[in-house]
Amino acid sequence: MKASRGPRLATAALTLALSTLTFTGSAYAGTGVGDGKGGDTEQTGGSDSTGIYAAAKIQYSGSVAKGGATGNVTSADVNWTPPACWYAPYLGAKDFKKEMSGNLDEALNTPGMGGTASSAIGEVQRHYEDDYGWTDTPGYKDYNVDKDGEGMFWAAVENPNEPDVLKRTSCTDLPFWVDNGEAPPPQHEEAISPEILAGLAYQHMQLPDTKVTLAPAANTKVNLPTWAWLDKAVFDEVQATAALNAPGFNIQATTTAKPVSLKLEPGTEDAETYPASGECVINADGSIGEPYAQGKSAQTPPCGLKYLRSSGDGTYNMRATITWDIAWTGTGGTGGDLPNGTFGSEQAITVQEIQAVNR
């Protein structure tokens, strides 16, 4: 059944019903199927007697923060952010009917529920029970239970690491059905995809600490060039993978970060950097800078810095930041570029005056 007033009524039903209903299953959080976190090993969620997974969480592997928490990579593009929410496989038809019908009945029987809110919840009930649909959004007969095992209902997932609650809760489409092996309907633009997984792998990627080798090391002299370098063996490309496995739907994406440059910030204006920009590019062999060796004291380091004033009784906090070129590949030959990532750390530098000796 198609409803001529579908889009308007559907919007009202969606807004009011989802603000009224509270899904309580272990996979649900607010109006989404979960918080998007995944362990590093087995899929979490559970299954019913048919083997249909009750929830399919994203699994992280490779160089990712422990437990799937947010990593330490920062996008160099301030306009790019990881996915704030998405749609993912949630429940098989029988499980979804039990979950959704119970919540709808509870909401309709809530004391004081009436008027527009009750009508909106009724529209959602008709949508899943009586084949009530609208443009590009078909209805369902008895929650599609005759197709149980042949597909899953998909629902919204919030990214728990997204600080903006409006963005985090912006995936407001009603749960929708996807047949096993089929792509989600195109109107659901935030349906989980390799590209979305790539953005999440990027967010959870753990990069190595940026501790550069210095000569002189932690103590140097005023006006004495300090050499800085990173050996290829110390840092190399980093990979992180995000995967989602559900009945009839298995996708993954791997992000790869390759170091491209090192930026030195002396921690004081009374200093010079080599080169003047402070940006040391990667060498052909994958290293950055050049190790200091005896006999190079009169040379200018290709990567380094020189302090012009003593640090006194304290230290200068030199910051070393590596820029990483990041790209991704995913299921079905998909792939592309992601914004460069950065990660840096500070090193305490003591700068002493050169003591003159009077004879």
Secondary-structure-derived class? alpha+beta
Q: Unreliable stretches, pLDDT < 50, 5 or more residues?
A: 1-12, 20-32, 37-54
Order of helices and strands: HEEEHHEHEHEEEEEEEEEEE
Measured distance between first and last alpha carbons: 104 Å
Oligomeric status: single chain
Beta strands, count: 16
Shape: elongated
What is the CA-based Rg, rounded? 28 Å
Q: Can you summarize the main beta sheet?
A: 8 strands, mixed
Helix percent reads 10-25%
Q: Could you walk me through the main structural features you see in this protein, from its secondary elements to its overall organization?
A:
- By secondary structure, the chain is α+β, with helices and mostly antiparallel strands.
- Helix content is 17%, strand content 30%.
- It has helices at 6-20, 93-108, 115-129, 165-168, 194-204; strands at 59-62, 74-75, 85-91, 151-158, 176-179, 213-215, 219-221, 226-230, 238-246, 249-265, 271-274, 279-281, 288-289, 304-307, 316-330, 334-352.
- A hairpin with a 3-residue loop joins strand 15 and strand 16.
Q: What's the short story on this structure?
A:
This protein has helices at 6-20, 93-108, 115-129, 165-168, 194-204, and strands spanning 59-62, 74-75, 85-91, 151-158, 176-179, 213-215, 219-221, 226-230, 238-246, 249-265, 271-274, 279-281, 288-289, 304-307, 316-330, 334-352.
